[in-house]
Write a structure and sequence with these properties.
Layout (H helix, E strand, L loop, with lengths): L9 E7 L3 H15 L4 E3 L6 E6 L1 H10 L8 E6 L9 E2 L3 H9 L5 E13 L4 E6 L2 E5 L5 E7 L2 E14 L7 H4 L11 E9 L12 E4 L4 E5 L4 E6 L2 E6 L1 E16 L7 H10 L5
Parallel strand pairs: 1-2, 1-3, 3-4, 4-5
Antiparallel strand pairs: 6-7, 6-16, 8-10, 8-14, 9-10, 9-13, 10-11, 11-12, 13-16, 14-15
The structure holds nicotinamide-adenine-dinucleotide.
Nicotinamide-adenine-dinucleotide binds next to helix 2 and helix 4.
Main location: cytoplasm
GO molecular function: ATP binding; metal ion binding; NAD binding; NAD+ kinase activity
Catalytic activity: NAD(+) + ATP = ADP + NADP(+) + H(+)
């Protein structure tokens, strides 16, 4: 956790999904901040972004402000069950307001992923992912070389590959059989999506955790269309010559509050629930 000093009013942006409950809550917060002395409502260059909805809404808020990660801190309010990026439920909004009124600029930060796609004409597209980036080939089996830190590791055949962040490890990565990584571990996780494994074709099979400063490169061996996903967005590219994955030099920061529950508690609440000990 780090300290920040505020000399001026805290600029707050409120982003909500289309659900009735989210819009109602956004109006309540909007009215509260509009009349507050210490806060200033603006979507331009905010200090704090309040996302109302679920994890998907927080992912969208992250992408809206991904170029301002140095200054922005996020807070998530869930209008359904508790999510992974949402510290508050909708009925806890008064607690959130109390915490923001006493806020000293403390933050908790997590690693994100930097993805660079190089097309065969040399054009490069760079994106950031909070959960994961996947690459899949739709028409035929994807064939691609996996290179880890310049080591030509394996030739992959299958549906595709996912590379996730630590906070994304509980999302698609988990469904693919990947490990759950504590978000203070600065590492990326490569997970296979339906790899072909038999006497002829061979991949490692298990997911791989790659430390900070190392890089993963995927080099497609067939021309054609590839579908890339970056969190909740998908893109189709033709003629990809390389995709590179690294931990970004920026992080996502959340407003650090007493409601920011332990990671293991979230994992337990989401996937295990109560049990008789
Ligand atoms: P969405 O908002 O409906 O999210 C799908 C589900 O993933 C929700 O239940 C959400 O709470 C959960 N989720 C999102 N981020 C999470 C995280 N970091 N840890 C644990 N659960 C998380 O749909 P969307 O807006 O399209 O969300 C995109 C995300 O959905 C992707 O980043 C991907 O991780 C996930 N996804 C999962 C699968 C799968 O599990 N088979 C398939 C595709 C996408």
């Amino acid at each position: 956790m780090t300290q920040m000093t505020f000399n001026t009013k805290t600029k707050v942006a409120i982003i909500a999904n289309g659900k009735y409950q989210s819009k109602r809550l956004a109006t309540k917060l909007f009215n509260t901040f509009r009349d507050a002395d210490d806060f200033y409502l603006t979507k331009k260059n905010p200090d704090i972004v309040i996302s109302i909805g679920g994890d998907g809404m927080l992912l969208s808020a992250f992408h809206m402000y991904e170029k301002q990660l140095d200054r922005v801190r996020f807070v998530g309010i869930h209008t359904g069950h508790l999510g992974f990026y949402t510290d508050y439920r909708d009925f806890e909004v008064d607690t959130l307001l109390e915490n923001l009124y006493t806020d000293k600029g403390e933050k908790i930060s997590y690693p994100i992923l930097k993805v660079t796609v190089t097309l065969s004409n040399g054009h490069q597209i760079t994106s950031r992912a909070l959960n994961e980036a996947t690459v899949k080939r739709i028409e035929k089996t994807m064939v691609a070389d996996v290179v880890i830190n310049d080591v030509k590791f394996e030739r992959f055949r299958g549906d595709g590959i996912s590379v996730s962040t630590p906070t994304g490890s509980t999302a698609y990565n988990k469904s693919l059989g990947g490990a759950i990584l504590h978000p203070t571990i600065e590492a990326l996780q490569l997970t296979e999506i339906s790899s072909l494994n038999n006497r002829v074709f061979r991949t490692l099979g298990s997911s791989i955790i790659i430390p900070k400063k190392d890089k993963i490169e995927i080099i497609p061996k067939r021309l054609g269309s590839y579908v890339l996903s970056i969190d909740n967005k998908t893109y189709t590219h033709r003629n990809i010559s390389k995709i590179e994955y690294k931990i970004d030099n920026k992080k996502i920061s959340f407003v650090s509050t007493p409601s920011h529950t332990s990671f293991w508690e979230r994992v337990k609440d989401s996937f295990i629930g109560e049990w008789d000990s």
